[in-house]
User: Fold this.
Amino acid sequence: MAGQHWQRAAGPSGRFESTFIIERVNSDERLLVNEIFYSIQGESSFSGYPCVFVRLTACNLRCVYCDTQYAFHEGRWIPIEDILAEVLEFQTPLVEITGGEPLLQKPVHSLVSNVLEAGKQVLIETGGSLDISGVDPRAILIYDIKCPDSGMAEKNRWENLEQLRNHDEIKFVISSRQDYEWAVQILTERRLALRHIVLFSPAWNILAPDQLAGWILEDRLPVRLQVQLHKVLWGERRGV
Assistant:
């Protein structure tokens, strides 16, 4: 089922739901979309669940390990009502809005709210450099704090941490022992694990997962080891 780009799961209930919800969307709103696909969620505490992904185009960051550089520029403008129809017809309860950096496009907030109104659970993956105050509080942020080896640590918007809700999750992508020690310092000083699920993820093909696992166990950290399950299953492919 993974990688079914722009395919719709037809069915009377899905079609009725789409029509009912879409009538409330401003037809003038649109987003620059890189891809929409149905797959297994590979990250966060929702890893393993079927999920519809809406990947938006453009990113203001350039992490050295980025695996979605194709989303920097590729995309097409799609009315929000059409995006919503595509999402709802997959008839799955979990939806992720990702990028790129999805918060760069202001109409994303309308999409998020309308997907939520349709009864879906919405995850938003964000790079942590933009203001999150406008995000619908019902959505769950997967909030990425950039470590030094990403090359983007100076872009972290630290004031955002005070605006995170308890259900939001915090992610560190770790490339080295230096990154690990830096992340542990942030975790400890800001007491992040008291309020949030904290994810430590090894940078793909840079830091071995078992190495990171060993450090977490040795230091008895209250964090969750995250591997990119979709890459474990299908490798570095688009649409999964």
Notes: The longest helix spans residues 177-189. The chain is about 25% helix and 20% strand.
